Each structure stands twice: as C-alpha cells, then as structure tokens.
Amino acid sequence: MSRLPARNRARPRNDDDRIMPLINVVFLLLIFFMLAGRLTAADPFEIAPPESASGGDPAAEEMLILVAADGRLALDGAMVSEAELAERLGREPRRVRLKADADAEAVRVVQVMEVLRDAGVGNLYLLTVPAGR
C-alpha cells in the first residue's frame, strides 16, 4: 500500500483545471471595470445645460467649450482663460460645440460666442437638453 506524496495530491488533473482560476479572475476584473469605468472623459466642472423645444443630434465635433454657472471656461476638458481660448481657436478655426450651464449669465455666454466669432469659428452648436426631461 503505497501513498502518493502530498505535493502530488493537490495538483490539477489537466491543463484546463490549472487555468480556470485565472479565467475566473480575469472575468471578475472585466465585470468590475465595465461597472466602475467610464468611456468618456469627465467635464472639469458640472454643467446643467438649458432646455430646448427644438432638437437635433449633436455630431462628434472637434472642439467642446464649456461655460460654468460662475463663468469659468473649459476647452476640450481643460480649464482655460478667455485669452487662452481665443489663442487656441485662432490657430485652428473649426466647428465648435458650446455647452453652457443654464444658470450661466447670458452676457457671459454671448461674450464667449463673440470670442468664437472673432476667432473665425464658422459653425457653432449650442448644446441644450430637450424640454421635459
């Protein structure tokens, strides 16, 4: 009556049994990142856009400008001053989306729109949310 050494008893029977714990861990990590992750970059400050009765599908444009309720500006996810905004737009005039907070002063939003016009922006899209949401 011979017995196998203790180290041989705990070994998996085949290759599938060896990689099954690895597959389980990878699967759990995949589920974790799917639930916890975000696929888009977060805005540097919170924006509650105004409501609009008309609608349209916003296309994926090149530049996104945010105007906070307190007047701060962000360009493509980075905080900028008005002078920096004009400088960056002056280099590459193109289509722009403007997302302003509903509580932002209209004077400030118009001021930003004038900076965009002076920089040569031809197509400006003012982002809103549909009324009733």
From TrEMBL:
A Pfam cross-reference name: ExbD
Any single Gene Ontology cellular-component annotation: plasma membrane
GO biological-process terms attached to the record: protein transport
Main location group: membrane
A GO molecular-function annotation: transmembrane transporter activity
Top-level division of the source organism's lineage: Bacteria
Membrane topology qualifier: Single-pass membrane protein; Single-pass type II membrane protein
Keywords of the record: Cell membrane, Membrane, Protein transport, Transmembrane, Transmembrane helix, Transport
Subcellular localization(s) per the UniProt record: Cell membrane
PANTHER family tied to this protein: EXBD MEMBRANE COMPONENT OF PMF-DRIVEN MACROMOLECULE IMPORT SYSTEM
Similarity comment text for this entry: Belongs to the ExbD/TolR family.
This protein's name: Biopolymer transporter ExbD
Lineage: Bacteria, Pseudomonadati, Pseudomonadota, Alphaproteobacteria, Minwuiales
